[in-house]
Amino acid sequence: RKMRMTKRREQWLLWLAGIVVCLMLSVGAAVSAQAAGRQVYDDAGLFSDSEISELTAAVNVAEEETGWDLMLLTVNDSSVGSTQSYAEEKFNEYTEKDNGIAFVLDMNARLFYIATGGEAYEYVGDTRLNELLDDATAYAGDGDYYQAMIAMLSSFSYSYSMRSKSCCCWR
């Protein structure tokens, strides 16, 4: 009888260990998926939690409309040598697609930068990029960085929807 209890206990412990391993794997996968799906990186600390949520929702809408990856980045780090390199590095690190846009506000360099890749590069020409930057700069001059990002996203989404209804390029 003692042998049987030990065998049952051993089976129960193996079953319990299996459940624990499965739970750990599922939590790890969920955390990884959450990090991969993140679109707003406020490393400069400019936005409140509610603003980050609203920006994320706006990015989600734009991503659904375009099928591209979009990111909003803020940085305030003097070690960033080039805003362009920073934008491209972050985009490649955190996105899954080759098509997309990274909207960057570099507080140290005091500038906005928009990096485009794949279809987005072809879709958004220099004229349109300058218009998006003008939209953002109008708010950033007053220190309203949240509204600056919203303005760029809104202008981009509106132009994309107008472009997709017509046959002409933005350029």
Description of the molecule:
It contains 6 helices and 4 strands, in the order αβαβαββααα. α5 packs antiparallel against α6 (145-165). It has a 4-stranded mixed beta sheet, sandwiched between helices. The longest helix is centred in the first third of the chain and has 35 residues, at 2-36. It is an alpha/beta fold. The chain has helices at residues 2-36, 49-66, 83-94, 119-123, 126-140, 145-165, and strands spanning 40-42, 69-75, 100-106, 111-117. It is globular.
Structural class: alpha/beta
Shape: globular
Number of helices: 6
Average pLDDT, rounded to a whole number, is: 80
Listing every helix as H and every strand as E from the N terminus to the C terminus, the arrangement reads HEHEHEEHHH
Distance between the termini: 84 Å
Helix content: 55-70%
Task: Catalogue the unreliable spans.
Answer: 26-36
Short recap of the structure:
With 171 residues, the chain is α/β, with parallel strands linked by helices.
